[in-house]
Write a structure and sequence with these properties.
The protein is an alpha+beta fold and 158 residues long. Helices cover 34% and strands 22% of the residues.
């Protein structure tokens, strides 16, 4: 299962001079960061990637899925791309990704299996319950990613 969420970066993280990689992007809502997560079938996080907030979800799909052997890959409509679906089926897995409404050829989806994607949505909700994640004050992406990994380990232990 893969999904992503946006975290707003506050002025303390977004201001001042750049002293290293920050992974803070500019969008309508202001400076933000996007956290991409991959989980196994039991709901345990196995990979977390951080990018600038304005980037699309599909840009990190290959990186989230790389190195894993899966029967099914569950994702939301943000990951609906022909190249990604072909790559999943080429690995011998089944893509459980709902098609976007503007697709000419609609793909069938096993909605019963898709319901299990709630595990990754609940993980994202738990992740954002930690104040330091929900309100990003860390300037550099390395320090913020360390906090994300620390919170992921706490969530995994619960």
């Amino acid at each position: 299962m893969i999904d992503s969420t946006i975290v707003r970066a506050y002025q303390h993280a977004a201001g001042a001079q750049k002293s290293g990689a920050q992974a803070i992007g500019r969008s309508r809502g202001g400076p933000s960061t996007k956290i991409h997560a991959a989980m196994d079938a039991r709901g345990n996080q196995v990979r977390v990637i951080m990018t600038a907030g304005q980037g699309a979800d599909i840009t990190q799909a290959d990186a989230l899925n790389a190195g894993f052997v899966a029967d099914k890959v569950l994702a939301d409509k943000g990951y609906d791309a022909d190249a990604f679906v072909v790559k999943i089926t080429g690995q011998g897995a089944h893509a459980v990704i709902p098609p976007r409404s503007n697709r000419i050829a609609q793909r069938s989806v096993d909605w019963h299996v898709y319901k299990d994607r709630n595990l990754v949505a609940r993980f994202v909700n738990r992740l954002k319950q930690f104040r330091r994640i929900a309100t990003r004050y860390d300037k550099l992406d390395t320090s913020f990613l360390c906090v994300i990994f620390l919170v992921c380990s706490v969530i995994w232990l619960l």
